[in-house]
Amino acid sequence: MDWARDLGNSALGTPSVVVAIGNFDGFHLGHQQLIKTLKARSKELSLKSTVVTFEPHPQTYFQPHIRLTRLSSVREKLELFRDHGVERVIALRFNEQLASLSAEDFVRKYLVKSLSASHVVVGYDFGFGAGRSGTAEDLQALGEAYGFGVSRVAAVSIDGQKISSTRVREALEIGDLVLAERLLGRPYAISGRVLYGDQRGRTWGFPTANLLVERHTPPLRGVFAVEVAGVENGLLPGVANLGFRPTVGGDRLLLEVHLINFSGTFYGDRIRVVFRKRIRAETKFDSFDALKDQIHKDTLMASTWLTENPRTV
After folding, report:
1. What class is the 2-161 domain?
2. Which is higher by pLDDT, 296 or 196?
3. Could you give the CA distance from residue 132 to residue 130 in angstroms, rounded to a whole number?
């Protein structure tokens, strides 16, 4: 899969493409339906499938004082696009220049001049242009004027409610991993490279793999039973804390993972942590001894739950 951080003012020098536009945070089942439509149109027209997304998230640009929780990092989004067969991704820089473009100017600059789009796929609630003034109906009218088709993908619902990134965030915030998995079509996971930590867990007999996740601020917090990919073949059982480690005076959002009955090291490796069960909220303990005792209990609880609830796929 090819990807670019932005587009210049000139065409890419490639044939026309089919384009899907959206933020795609979390890549839930609604997003996946949109990508299925993109691939179907690409196959029908024998053209390359291309996704146009935005970084940073537009909400971060318009509300910089609010720390937006993200369901997926940029790299995770790219990996999900690749795994679902997208051929090219363009991550447009969402800045003042892009935010101020009118709906027609956006179409003319990016879809027509830069991408030579033959067909465009968008979601049911698509809005674009300055102040989201453009609607899916406006895009269809512009498509007729500039010579490209438009497919508008209907909402996907579960339990009578539309699936959205907001709904996934809300499920994760309350620790409802079962609902989050149903909305995503897969267990929620976080990927990252293992950092060198302060080694405190190792001295206590609970060595941890540390992942810094503050850049995209995932919505869930607490202690979890997890499974980890990327260390050995298959998934390894573990217990994880996602938070600020108040007992040890932590000041960064960190994902700490202890692999159960595993003694190796994998600093610098990229791993994927799959969240299976929320055990408890993060707590500040009165002493390190109390914390160590709770870690022992958490590990036993995670190990027992994972043994009794094996994943079959």
Report:
1. alpha beta
2. 296
3. 5
